[in-house]
Amino acid sequence: MSTKKYQVFISSTFTDLAEERRKALNILLMADCIPAGMEAFVATDNEQFEVIKKVIDLCDYYILIIGKRYGSVNPDARISYTEMEYDYAKSKGIPVLVFAIDESVDLPDDKQEQDEYKIESLKTFRNKAMANRLASMWKNSDELTGAIAISIMRAKVEISRPGWQRATDYDEVSLRREIMDLQKNNNELINDLAEAKKMVVALTEQTDVAFEECEFTIEYYYFKKRSTGSDKILSSITIGLPALFVIIATEMMAVSLAEIHVEKAITGSKLFPSSYSCSLNDRQLIKRILNQLEALKLINSNWSKSSSTLYWSLTAKGRKVRDDMILIRST
Hints:
Layout: E1 6-11, H1 18-30, E2 33-36, H2 46-57, E3 61-66, H3 81-91, E4 96-101, H4 116-130, E5 135-138, H5 141-158, H6 172-204, E6 215-226, E7 229-240, H7 241-251, E8 257-258, H8 259-267, E9 278-280, H9 285-295, E10 299-304, E11 309-314, H10 316-326
Parallel strand pairs: 1-2, 1-3, 3-4, 4-5
Antiparallel strand pairs: 6-7, 6-9, 8-11, 10-11
Helix pairs in contact: 1-5, 2-3, 7-10
């Protein structure tokens, strides 16, 4: 049987729900939980709220009880301290259990908001909190305590949390063995990381990737018009990688290009017959050119999930090399 105890923060307006808070406290104690956020932690200013945030940080679960009062409003945030507590718990990823009073329940005036701003604010807050999947409604304190008892027991089973446990409940020998195993795993991970870093450095510091002396022989088809039709002609041209890079980089002025657009930029350049429609014979050639430029750290790739397309763009190094090659400098 687990000896863990779970700390639970109880949040609500205070004066109108004092009885409900007391019963919630008793239910949590019966469920082997450690209640927090009771009377000593009711926020009325920013300084006290900072204390409450530290308490919430230590809690495993957060219970929000909503009645028909909105509570004290923070003058800076323009929302109640109760809502601020709720928002903070959500931001910290603490499981939130919400219990809101049924709107059909009739309550005395001193337990209901009379101010229009607070009425609207409470409505907005209630709608936000009730969107939580762990939210339920109650009509009286007995229904509330029953709902809290069921919800907290389910939460303890379904939502794993660290909890608190006495140090004396641990077996020292087992703890030492576990620490040794963790240290061993940690050392293995450190060694694996070091090897991975060496591999990355080796890859990024390649000095044998050709640029100036690299050439590609491009085979392409074009159609030559005749008086009776047109002929499909296979031709080829050998182009140095720097010339290809200038074409591609100039097309990438402020945009990323897909592979098909890189191909169109090359075949549409002055290196090919301008009066003919050209198409490449080798469909893998563009990939090899792009791979060579990527290995030189002149371009990089980015996968777009929305269009299922790989896009290529210039790196900072690529932009500098392009500018050095095409800019007209003053003498």
